[in-house]
């Protein structure tokens, strides 16, 4: 069966088509294709004047690749990239027959179609390109919402981290919580002892048995500190192997010395990790809130640190009180900065 | 559950129209913390009802009126231009847009798979008018559709009159009379992605 199609029907069905004569001149261009080319009429141009051939077989007599597939770029207008199909119109194989070229947008073109200011009437009502453009636009809107959500969640995670008061390895309080606890006790005018602990031989455990063994030791220490203190006391891990205890309402040096001795004795118990015995000890330095007019965490920590160094100087497993003097620890500016 | 997109639209409407302080007050009344909805999450229905109730109390306005204004806002405000554009994909003129409303829930699901829009069915009245049957989970939402239709009519430059009649059960019928599809110039709508 042969169809004699009116050009107006073709314009509506395939608004981006062109009829090509046997001499490779454009006999007729569909309205949307002409719109893309701008003011210059395509009709009358040779095919290669109108288009740059990008893929297809060759620019010779044998245009069109497999099943007539062809990839072109318009030489006019915005230089739109197109793909399409080029087939002999009259079915005749001989030279000089007319062809029909039907085009659509190359994929890369979809993102910059706005330059062409196209509207619904430029496409056949059943052309899914409109739905494609809808989807692209919807996807963009959703993606931008998703990106904003992620940024907000990142911010929230960051804030949560900053607000965290727990050390994740040991479950003890962290430095922030410690500072808050000092402030609370001071506010309630409650006297307290601040005990600063530093493990002895911890580096050796890490070096000999690895970090997992070191972690097991830290958890052992945390357990001991929890057991040897009351619920109203605060136990914090403030550095790699550094801990601080706040003994609320406790300022009796003899009592504190006894607590320190029990802590040293318990911490010195060997820890079994994967069949290996790990041993550490601890040195402790203490200062009392009654030493200060206004007890403040940084000052007290620095003084407890001095007492701790005095204890270290006296040998492993010792406890000392701050006496208002003593050897300067090596890192005065940042007394708690992680010492391995 | 209600899609966060819906709550978020109401939030934007309330904040953009009445100011951040009014929104903060509404958010506080419904104990929304942090004080904003996420468009990509889902929320319990009671949250939306509570928000509308709080807004009605704070603004001293009936919920239906708030929803109708929110519908207009959704289509006409610059901050929700994406919604206007996506709706305009429904057709080249207002009449074809009306005929595309049957597809609207499916079209919306193409973009956001878990978004359930009200089922809309277009029929014809005896006098050449259109009858839009809206099935909404909450009757008030039909007022939002009314507001949106009014704004999209303006967007197309069509001269239309709209009338809402609440139907028994969950829904309403909106009578649409189109006097002129090209009454005013309307806002432009070219296909293709605009730089966002």
Could you explain how this protein is built, in words?
The complex is a heterodimer of chains A (340) and B (196). Helices cover 36% and strands 21% of the residues of chain A. With 340 residues, chain A is of the alpha+beta class. Chain A has a six-stranded antiparallel beta sheet with strand order 2-1-6-5-4-3, sandwiched between helices. In chain A, helix 6 (202-209) packs antiparallel against helix 7. Chain A is rod-shaped, with a radius of gyration of 41 Å. Chain B is α+β, with helices and mostly antiparallel strands and 196 residues long. Chain B is 47% helix and 17% strand. Chain B is built from eight helices and six strands. In chain B, the strands form two sheets. A four-stranded antiparallel beta sheet of chain B has the order 3-4-6-5, covered by helices on one side. A two-stranded antiparallel ribbon of chain B has the order 1-2. In chain B, strand 3 (119-124) and strand 4 form a beta hairpin. In chain B, helix 1 (4-18) crosses helix 2, helix 1 crosses helix 4 (63-76) and helix 2 (20-29) crosses helix 3 (45-59). The radius of gyration of chain B is 17 Å and the shape is globular. The relative contact order of chain B is 0.13. The A-B interface holds A 110-122, 130-131, 133-142, 144-146, 149, 152, 156 and B 34, 38-41, 82, 85-86, 89, 91-92, 96, 107, 110-112, 189-196.
């Amino acid at each position: 069966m042969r169809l004699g199609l009116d050009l107006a029907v073709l314009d509506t069905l395939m608004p981006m088509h062109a009829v090509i004569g046997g001499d490779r001149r454009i006999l007729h261009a569909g309205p949307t294709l002409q719109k893309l080319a701008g003011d210059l009429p395509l009709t009358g141009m040779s095919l290669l004047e109108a288009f740059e051939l990008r893929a297809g077989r060759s620019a010779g007599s044998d245009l069109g690749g497999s099943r007539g597939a062809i990839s072109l770029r318009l030489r006019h207008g915005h230089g739109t990239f197109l793909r399409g199909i080029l087939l002999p119109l009259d079915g005749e194989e001989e030279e000089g027959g007319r062809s029909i070229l039907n085009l659509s947008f190359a994929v890369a073109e979809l993102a910059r179609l706005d330059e062409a200011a196209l509207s619904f009437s430029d496409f056949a009502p059943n052309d899914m390109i409109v739905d494609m453009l809808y989807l692209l636009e919807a996807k963009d809107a959703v993606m931008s919402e998703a990106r904003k959500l992620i940024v907000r969640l990142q911010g929230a995670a960051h804030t949560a981290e900053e607000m965290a008061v727990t050390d994740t390895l040991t479950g003890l309080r962290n430095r922030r919580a410690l500072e808050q606890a000092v402030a609370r006790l001071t506010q309630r005018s409650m006297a307290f002892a601040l005990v600063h602990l530093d493990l002895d031989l911890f580096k050796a455990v890490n070096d000999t048995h690895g970090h997992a063994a070191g972690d097991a030791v830290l958890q052992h220490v945390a357990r001991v500190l929890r057991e040897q203190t009351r619920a109203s006391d605060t136990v914090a891990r403030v550095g790699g192997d550094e801990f601080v205890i706040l003994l609320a309402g406790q300022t009796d040096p003899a009592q504190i010395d006894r607590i320190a001795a029990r802590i040293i004795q318990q911490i010195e118990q060997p820890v079994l990790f994967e069949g290996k015995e790990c041993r550490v000890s601890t040195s402790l330095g203490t200062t009392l809130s009654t030493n200060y007019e206004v007890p403040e965490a940084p000052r007290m920590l620095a003084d407890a640190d001095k007492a701790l160094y005095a204890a270290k100087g006296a040998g492993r497993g010792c406890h000392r009180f701050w006496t208002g003097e003593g050897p300067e620890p090596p890192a005065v500016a940042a007394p708690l900065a992680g010492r391995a | 559950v209600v899609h966060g997109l819906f709550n978020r639209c109401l939030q934007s409407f309330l904040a953009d129209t009445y100011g951040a302080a009014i929104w903060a007050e509404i958010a506080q009344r419904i104990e929304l913390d942090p004080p904003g909805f996420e468009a990509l999450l889902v929320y319990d229905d009671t949250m939306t009802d509570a928000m509308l109730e709080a807004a009605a109390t704070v603004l001293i306005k009936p919920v239906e009126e708030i929803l109708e204004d929110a519908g207009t806002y959704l289509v006409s405000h610059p901050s929700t231009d994406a919604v206007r554009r996506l709706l305009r994909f429904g057709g080249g003129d207002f009449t074809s847009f009306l005929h595309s409303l049957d597809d609207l829930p499916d079209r919306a699901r193409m973009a956001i798979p878990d978004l359930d829009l009200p089922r809309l069915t277009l029929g014809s009245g005896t006098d050449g008018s259109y009858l839009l049957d809206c099935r909404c989970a909450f009757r008030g939402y039909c007022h939002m559709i009314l507001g949106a239709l009014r704004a999209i009519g303006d967007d197309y430059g069509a001269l239309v009159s709209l009338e809402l009649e609440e139907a028994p059960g969950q829904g309403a019928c909106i009578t649409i009379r189109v006097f002129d599809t090209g009454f005013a110039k309307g806002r432009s709508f070219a296909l293709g992605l605009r730089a966002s």
